[in-house]
Amino acid sequence: MPDLTLTTYDWVPPPPRGYVRDLRVRWALEEGALPYRVASTPFDDRGPAHLAHQPFAQVPWLTDGDLSIFESGAILLHLGGLSAKLMPTEPHGRNEVTEWVFAALNSVEMAGLPWSMSKFMGHPTDTVAWTFVDDFLKLRLKRLEPVLASREWLAGSFSVADILMADVLRVVDGFEGLKDSPACRAYVARATSRPAFAKAHADQMAHFAAADAARRA
Ligand SMILES: N[C@@H](CCC(=O)N[C@@H](CS)C(=O)NCC(=O)O)C(=O)O
Fold first, then answer.
1. Is the pTM of this model over 0.85?
2. What atom in ligand 1 is closest to the CA of residue 21?
3. Distance between Cα 149 and ligand 1 center (Å)
4. In sequence order, what are the beta bridge partners of 7?
């Protein structure tokens, strides 16, 4: 029986709420119907106890008994091993999910994150640097678009790969980055209309709202 505790920050400022990466883990835990607890680590004071679990002083991390796992992709692969609702048990299916997990993080998020950060920071768009970042993302979306137009989910049935890909793409979508990629946009809408996403999102928002209340008290 797994003994799962997800750790996230005790508080974050409003802009990233709804996008903090513990949401990916919450979403997977809800999809897999896996029982779990949520713990907090200080946002303002990231000391040795935090670094012992996450060497970049980030969140999330997950413990399963005496096992501690950081990196959202590694966490979701671990959860995939605990529930066939998150990853098939047969080798071909597992392999396909694993490929798409890495593709979401290492091919799409790698392009989407600098693009979204630049948008968020309001960086000028008449620069060589912006053109590079924008072209890089567009190239990835151009290749992903026909894939997502041809199937409902990345690897057969819904899996942890979809949680990661949809979570990566919805950040881009939030800055109108999918306006020329209708299949990618429809995929994000399809994935985020799942009840487990709604629960994960609401729980993260409630977690940080409770932290606001505690800070005011
Ligand atoms: N590659 C890591 C990235 C983790 C990450 O960027 N976490 C953010 C929250 S979504 C964070 O802790 N940011 C604070 C910081 O980097 O100082 C993962 O996927 O788990």
1. yes
2. 10
3. 30
4. 39, 61
Report the C-alpha gap between 198 and 203 in whole angstroms: 8
Residue 169's domain spans which residues?
Answer: 91-194
- Tell me how many domains the chain contains: 2
114 and 157 share one domain: yes
Q: How far is CA 54 from CA 2, 10, 66, 69, 173, in A?
A: 21, 15, 15, 8, 28
C-beta 21 within 6 A of ligand 1:
yes
The domain that holds 66 is classified in CATH as 3.40.30.10
Residue-wise pLDDT tens digits, 165-210: 999 999 999 999 999 999 999 999 999 999 999 999 999 999 999 9
Inter-residue contact 200 to 30 (CB < 8 Å): yes
